[in-house]
Write a structure and sequence with these properties.
BirA Bifunctional Protein, domain 2, 3 domains, binds aspartic acid, Gyrase A, domain 2
């Protein structure tokens, strides 16, 4: 027997029990002739006391950080207790010990506030994983996983695995491809999601499916994305949108209850995509605070101020009680919106002073009476500050959405312990991809248009108006899940592929299997997928999903521990009949 207890287990009631512990040496401290060691394992830390009698043995077998140690001894009450740890009332009087393995000095300290930089910790991820913080995150991830599985199991959902080596059908993100040795010049792709498989499972009659599953997307890695990530992927048959929202709202509530002890008594609010764009400037609104966007175009134009007159959009927010912002603060905010990431040329402000007077950066064009109109529109009161951006529609809306979040942050409205989920519904079916000059599916090509909009699919000029039965679940300004009611009729699916610019041949070549399946009694169905990594990071109060993944990749998609991706040798290339150009 290596151990009788873990390093997180012993308490005052165990005093005078003989025990055996095994773990890693966190610290060694000499105290006169006595040696104290903090022994760590996954469960906690226990203090060991090596009496003087063990000094000769300690001298021949000196202990160092991260040595693997086994000790026998007796639980004793500590004279100076440590209330910060659960085992802090006791220590082990060691009678015998054995070094099970030694360790090189670790390249960084294995503590919460480690001295190791990001790159170093990733290179030695197996050491980083010993740190409490990461351990807590992985534990939370596991608990969320269990909680989701229990819930879905209780609702009759069946976990069915789907393949990882599939057919490349680039739609949406870029595929990772895998050369096939047995099939000359042919490639598999790794799934971007099990989308078509879960739909096929519905055709097969498995009417409640789920999987906590890896997905792969070869995208440029914007901040905090991973090329492989995990989804809670679900699909249901004989349901409408309402059934899905209800079921997965309950799942979300269940997880919050179990993991955070938070009860949501009210239904999650729902917002149409159009309102989200109008009032928050994006489709994943952070509703922990108001500060809604106000279209000021009518008030702004026609007063001789070129910036407003020439703008596609003039939009303002009432940044609340900030009228005392100094010139310097306002200049700094102006610089903030001018940063390339935001891309505006300037910021206009109106101060509604506490004494009721109005002062703005555009006083030359607007007298107090005119400013009052803006203030009224923004529902401003004395003490408030109005911030206005003007310019090209899309950029300006996006910039204002960012500015709103920034002001929310500065004013302390974005408390990570406050959770405000909502559903965003009625997404457009299509969006225009400027780079490719064509309409693409806003969600994916299997999403059903609202029945009353199907006829608009015959007229290209109407595409922007077509809405889908598609929905996202949003938490604190982050999309944590999204899905849709699917097309389940061959002719409508063909119509959709055609609308996306696919020829009949192309559609058959890429998705013939699905079109074929739809001819054998496909039931009405729909589903959703949650971004599991992101959901966990939000529940853990962190912005970084990497901290919730055991072995993540860095921002260039590299695993610096494995040093992957890497070259392969000539034999492998030959077997695959591949030759490298450079
Ligand atoms: N497969 C979709 C995605 O990965 C989710 C869904 O529609 O269920 O975004």
């Amino acid at each position: 027997m290596y151990r009788s207890h873990t390093c997180g287990e012993l308490r005052i009631e165990h005093v005078s029990q003989p025990v055996k512990l095994a773990g890693w040496v966190q610290t060694v401290r000499k105290f006169g002739s006595i040696t104290f060691v903090d022994l760590r394992d996954r469960y906690g830390i226990t203090q060991l006391l090596f009496p003087e009698a063990l000094n000769p043995q300690l001298q021949s077998q000196p202990l160092g950080r991260e040595f693997v140690l086994q000790v026998s001894g007796t639980v004793t009450e500590r004279s100076s207790k440590n209330n910060n740890i659960p085992t802090g009332e006791i220590e082990i009087s060691v009678s015998d010990f054995q070094v099970l393995n030694s360790s090189k000095t670790p390249p960084f300290t294995i503590q919460d506030d480690t001295d190791g930089g990001d790159e170093l910790r990733m290179k030695y991820r197996y050491l980083d994983l010993r740190r409490n913080l990461i351990k807590q995150n992985l534990t939370l991830r596991y608990r969320v996983n269990r909680s989701v599985r229990n819930f879905l199991d209780s609702r009759g959902f069946m976990d069915i695995e789907t393949p990882y080596l599939i057919k490349s059908t680039p739609e949406g993100a870029r595929d990772f491809v895998v050369p096939s040795r047995m099939n000359d010049n042919q490639f598999y792709a790794l799934p971007q999601s099990p989308q078509t498989f879960k739909q096929l499972l519905m055709v097969s009659g498995y009417d409640r499916y789920y999987q906590i599953v890896k997905c792969f997307r070869d995208e440029d890695l914007r901040a905090d994305r991973q090329p492989e990530f995990t989804q809670i992927d679900c699909e249901m048959s004989f349901v409408d949108q309402e059934d899905i929202l209800k079921n997965f709202e309950e799942m979300t509530k269940h997880v919050f209850q179990e993991i955070k002890g938070i009860t949501f008594n009210e239904p999650f609010p729902r917002m149409t995509w159009e309102d989200a764009m109008k009032y928050y400037g994006n489709d994943k609104p952070d509703i922990r605070f108001e500060m809604k966007l106000v279209d000021l175009g009518e008030t702004a134009r026609g007063n001789g101020f070129k910036v407003f007159d020439e703008a596609e959009l003039v939009v303002g927010i009432n940044a609340g009680g900030c009228s005392e912002y100094t010139r310097k603060q306002l200049d700094e905010l102006t610089d903030w919106v001018k940063r390339p990431q935001i891309g505006m040329t300037g910021l206009i402000y109106i101060r509604y002073n506490a004494d009721g007077t109005l002062k703005s950066s555009v006083d030359k064009f607007f007298n107090e009476q005119a400013l009052q109109l803006f203030a009224d529109q923004c529902k401003a009161k004395p003490g408030d500050l109005i911030l206005i951006l003007a310019g090209k529609e899309e950029r300006t809306r996006k910039a204002m959405s960012e500015l709103r979040l920034e002001m929310g942050e500065r004013l302390g409205f974005r408390d990570k312990d406050v959770y405000k989920p909502l559903w965003v519904i009625d997404f457009p079916l299509f969006e225009y991809a400027e780079e490719d000059n064509r309409w693409v599916a806003r969600h994916h090509p299997f999403t059903a248009p609202k029945p009353e909009h199907i006829h608009l699919m015959d007229d290209l000029s109407q595409y922007a108006k077509i809405k889908a039965n598609a929905y996202d679940i949003v938490l604190n300004g982050t999309e944590i899940g999204g899905g849709s009611i699917r097309i389940f009729q061959r002719d409508l699916q063909e119509k959709m592929f055609a609308a996306l610019g696919m020829t009949k041949e192309e559609a058959n070549h890429k998705f013939g299997f699905l079109l074929g399946a739809f001819e054998y009694g496909a039931p009405p169905h729909g589903g959703i997928a949650f971004g599991f990594d992101r959901f966990c990071s939000l529940l853990g109060g962190s912005e970084t999903i990497r901290d919730f993944i055991a072995f993540p990749k860095n921002n260039s998609g590299r695993d610096v521990m494995l040093d992957a991706p890497s070259e392969i040798d000539q034999v492998q290339l030959d077997e695959l009949k591949l030759s490298l150009l450079k």
